[in-house]
Write a structure and sequence with these properties.
It contains ten helices and two strands; from the N terminus they run βααβαααααααα. The chain is an all-alpha fold and 253 residues long. It has a two-stranded parallel ribbon with strand order 1-2. Helix 1 runs antiparallel to helix 9, helix 7 packs antiparallel against helix 8 and helix 8 packs antiparallel against helix 9.
Length: 253
């Protein structure tokens, strides 16, 4: 079933469909941000006309624009998954997510911390949120808790387990949407490939429209950026000890 942001205030069944649709879509986006594009995954995206086939359809002008942008960038790859093109995609992925050559960190702390440092207060705040849900990052030194991929996976998880919509909205307000638009803009303006420009733009717009839908579901206006910043000034989380992850003992990424 296709769900759009015009239909999320309907009955319980539609809200359940909304949960499932967005959870699956966001997890699909997390996969694309998680590792460099392979030929198999690229061919799958081409055949599925991604992202047009996602279950939650974006209806705003910007949503339609970024959907088309990502769709077109993927179709440009059709039949071009040879070594030179894959190498170019891999280099672009590395510049964004590994070497930070574009100065567009995929981690929240760098955008929020006054000195632009990694693994600062926002990371520990998110670490505490994960802990309340019995989750830990497998190795926060290799991929910190405030990384884009882990935040997307966490939002998907909250939807899957039936968390309160208000909790999901709060996490988006206090974390992901405080920095994702800036990350997206910088990546799109500096990266070398249309695919990663399209992916970054689409991801930010997708999460934004999900947040608008949550506002409609909750019947509550979204807090302003100033209200969110004021709220976050009162939130201080002491650094937690390094999590001890033992496979099979607790959920993790």
């Amino acid at each position: 079933m296709t769900v759009s942001n015009k239909h999320v205030t309907a009955g319980r069944d539609v809200l359940a469909d909304f949960r499932q649709a967005v959870a699956q879509d966001i997890m699909a986006l997390a996969v694309l941000h998680n590792a460099e594009l392979t030929s198999d995954l690229g061919e799958q995206l081409v055949s599925e006309q991604f992202p047009s086939g996602l279950q939650f359809q974006l209806l705003s002008d910007q949503g339609k624009e970024t959907t088309q942008l990502l769709h077109d960038s993927i179709q440009l790859l059709d039949g071009k998954f040879d070594t030179p093109n894959l190498d170019e995609l891999a280099a672009d992925y590395a510049a964004i997510y590994l070497t930070l050559a574009f100065r567009a960190s995929p981690c929240e702390s760098v955008w929020i911390d006054e000195e632009g440092l990694a693994m600062q207060e926002p990371m520990f705040q998110i670490q505490a949120v994960y802990k309340r849900h019995g989750l830990t990052a497998q190795d926060w030194r290799k991929r910190s808790d405030d990384h884009l991929v882990l935040q997307l996976q966490f939002v998907s998880h909250l939807l899957e387990i039936g968390a309160e919509f208000g909790e999901i909205a709060r996490f988006l307000d206090e974390h992901l949407l405080r920095w994702l638009p800036d990350f997206s803009t910088r990546v799109a303006s500096r990266c070398a490939t249309p695919f990663y420009a399209g992916l970054s733009a689409f991801t930010a717009t997708y999460v934004e429209e999900v947040r608008e839908s949550l506002s409609a579901i909750l019947g509550e206006p979204r807090p302003t950026a100033e209200e969110i910043e004021q709220r976050m000034k009162t939130v201080h989380t002491a650094p937690l000890p390094e999590p001890k992850y033992v496979p099979g003992t607790a959920p993790s990424w």
